[in-house]
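Notebook entry, structure prediction.
Reason for the run: the old model in the group folder had no record of what sequence produced it. Starting over properly, with the input documented here first.
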Amino acid sequence: MISVLQTCQPRPEILAGTFNPEVFTASLSPIIDFYRKGRSSIDHIYTNAQQFFDEATYPTQGLKTTLTEVFSRIAGDMTVPAIHRLETAFGGGKTHTLIACTHIAYQGKKLEGSIGEILDPNLLPAPGSVSVVGGSSNTCAGN
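New structure, fully documented this time:
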């Protein structure tokens, strides 16, 4: 059996002792502020959509299903749920899912190269075609 030390390589900032644990303190409102005002108080891993999907997002089945249903509905498929209630244990990905929805709603087709295994590129909206309404604890997307 291969040990965890052989299969998992720590990030460079862990090895250098410069790791900032606040990078894992995600919040939705700074992401929305970033899109609305061009500035944010949260780590760039969350505001840079390509980096968020490439480096900080593991495509779980739950994430893929939620994004597929949300953006299928926005694309006009009335057979998928219009309302989603995200329920997971603490640290289970609710905020991460909302941040993913926000990035896709704002940037849509610009993210085609970064979300291939997460969401069918045919479901990506045109950039600027989705209105995003949100605050500190929730987000809604719609045409």
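Summary: The chain has seven helices and two strands.
The old model has been moved to the deprecated folder.
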